[in-house]
């Protein structure tokens, strides 16, 4: 009895005949390749989704404006003790290390975080916008409810992706004079007001990260 020749089938991809086993092995390989491509597409989509979620996670979530004993005390001091008027909340922000760094010597107040833009006159806007100009000279009340003696200068600072107001010139001296209050990660509010039309600002520390530590050590956090 002669040897049975392997059954041959027609290969759809070329003119050569192949055995049935070879044909099915090719089909299996094609299915495997297709499945691998599908897995690669799914991995790519999963990677894109992770990147998107990561970027969304970096968005700054607006914080609720704090109103407490500190802000009420400040308002009473400005209006009653200093005869100030037109008091407006300009910004609430957490201090970064750069805000209290002596070498930086400036407080950064990004436009996109401002609570109001209507605290300057037209002339003051022109002065803070002048590139070569010094800005507007203002007076600043510290968290200790004392008017700082040295003048501070308000100026706009344009960056590639944003625009900011900054307190500069003598800012680092102001921080030193209020170092018990102005520390990195402290949540502050900057208020504008006027005395005899003179533009002034006040800084209130509405949330201080070191208060709990001070209380635990038996220290007065005020």
TrEMBL record:
Is the DNA-binding keyword given for this protein?
yes
What GO cellular component is one of the record's annotations?
nucleus
Q: Which UniProt keywords apply?
A: DNA-binding, Nucleus, Transcription, Transcription regulation
**What Pfam family does this protein match (any one)?**
At2g31720-like
Q: Where in the cell is it found?
A: Nucleus
UniProt-recorded Gene Ontology molecular function terms: DNA binding
Q: Which PANTHER family match?
A: B3 DOMAIN PLANT PROTEIN-RELATED, TF-B3 DOMAIN-CONTAINING PROTEIN
Protein name stated in the entry: B3 domain-containing protein, DNA-binding pseudobarrel domain protein
Report the source organism.
Artemisia annua (Sweet wormwood)
